């Protein structure tokens, strides 16, 4: 096992460093994984790096520097401690971990053996895929639903794919980026709308005659919430899947009451809250389902990877994230290049 670990750390607002420290061997019930790839959750990590959140929010309670970003990675098991039976040295696994060359994992953590035939670059999406799946489950889709996905970053792309798999009759994919709307359509969305949420509302209502059954607000932009409410048909559902750093700027629209809408929040940690012997769809089960869809070709994540950086290029990578370019969909750190 390596005697040092390299990791990406936010040392302050808009400050990114590559740090090296001692490697820790696994204790009982633990194992180490040498990462090959880790995926940047651009929305979340951009908010954390830029402190783009209001004081007193859950973001403010979570983010303190130095901060270790990242939570979706793939690698190879390098060493195992006593009482570890789920994995063996040499297994290829997907783990929830920060961006680092080697990570220490608990045997009871969210860990998945990566099926043969699925590349690291595809598998690295597993945790964002469970986050999107939490939102889709909260929507409680019915066969033939009409759906609008507002915001086609990484989680929005996955939500659009899940909505199609869930039997949606029409999926409207909405983003300001031509690249992202085309990408969503290429992966199964029925209609791409490259425009603002307000402009999309007019197009969606015109196409459906009444609005859609389910709207996913995955933008993380506070002003979009009221537009999502206006885009939803009577007794429809709005799923707030984009976690804004400025919830105080979100406003209601009269359609919430007049149309009897249901608004539900969906968050990363909800999969963990469901983790009990009685809960069927905890993080582990949702991850397994994602890999099943991926193996059967019913979902595609390979096409979502728009940028690959080495860890040594971390500052450049996060400048790109903070700039929020229209062609950014998936950003991967390649740890084999370290």
Automatic annotation (TrEMBL):
Limits of the Enoyl reductase (ER) domain: 12-324
Entry cofactors: Zn(2+)
SUPFAM superfamilies, per database record: GroES-like, NAD(P)-binding Rossmann-fold domains
Stretch forming the signal peptide: none
InterPro entries, per the entry: ADH-like_C (IPR013149), ADH-like_N (IPR013154), ER (IPR020843), GroES-like_sf (IPR011032), NAD(P)-bd_dom_sf (IPR036291)
Keywords: Metal-binding, Oxidoreductase, Zinc
Similarity comment: Belongs to the zinc-containing alcohol dehydrogenase family.
Name of the protein in its database record: Zinc-binding alcohol dehydrogenase
Organism name: Streptomyces bikiniensis
């Amino acid at each position: 096992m390596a005697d040092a670990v390299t990791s990406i750390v936010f040392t302050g607002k808009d400050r990114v460093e590559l740090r090296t420290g001692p490697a820790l061997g696994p204790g009982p019930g633990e194992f180490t994984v040498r990462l090959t790839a880790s995926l940047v959750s651009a929305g979340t990590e951009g908010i954390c790096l830029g402190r783009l959140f209001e004081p007193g929010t859950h973001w403010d309670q979570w983010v303190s520097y130095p901060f270790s970003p990242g939570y979706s990675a793939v690698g190879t098991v390098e060493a195992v401690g006593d009482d570890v039976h789920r994995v063996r040295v040499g297994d290829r696994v997907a783990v929830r971990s920060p961006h680092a060359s080697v990570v220490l994992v608990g045997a009871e953590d969210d860990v998945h053996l990566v099926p043969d035939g699925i590349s690291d670059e595809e598998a690295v999406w597993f945790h964002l895929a469970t986050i999107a799946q939490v939102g889709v489950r909260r929507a409680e889709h019915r066969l033939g639903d009409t759906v609008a996905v507002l915001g086609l970053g990484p989680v929005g792309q996955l939500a659009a794919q899940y909505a199609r798999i869930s039997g949606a009759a029409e999926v409207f994919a909405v983003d300001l980026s031509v690249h992202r709307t085309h990408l969503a359509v290429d992966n199964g969305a029925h209609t791409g709308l490259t425009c603002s949420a307000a402009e999309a509302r007019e197009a969606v209502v015109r196409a459906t005659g009444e609005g859609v059954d389910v709207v996913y607000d995955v933008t993380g932009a506070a002003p979009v919430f009221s537009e999502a409410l206006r885009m939803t048909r009577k007794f429809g559902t709005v799923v707030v899947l984009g976690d804004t750093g400025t919830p105080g700027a979100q406003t209601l629209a009269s359609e919430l009451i007049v149309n009897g809408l249901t608004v539900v929040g969906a968050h990363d940690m909800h999969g963990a809250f469901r983790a009990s012997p009685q809960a069927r769809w905890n993080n582990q089960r949702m991850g397994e389902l994602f890999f099943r869809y991926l193996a059967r070709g019913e979902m595609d994540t390979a096409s979502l990877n728009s940028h690959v950086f080495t860890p040594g290029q971390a500052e450049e990578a996060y400048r790109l994230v903070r700039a929020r370019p229209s062609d950014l969909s998936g950003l991967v750190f390649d740890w084999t290049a370290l």
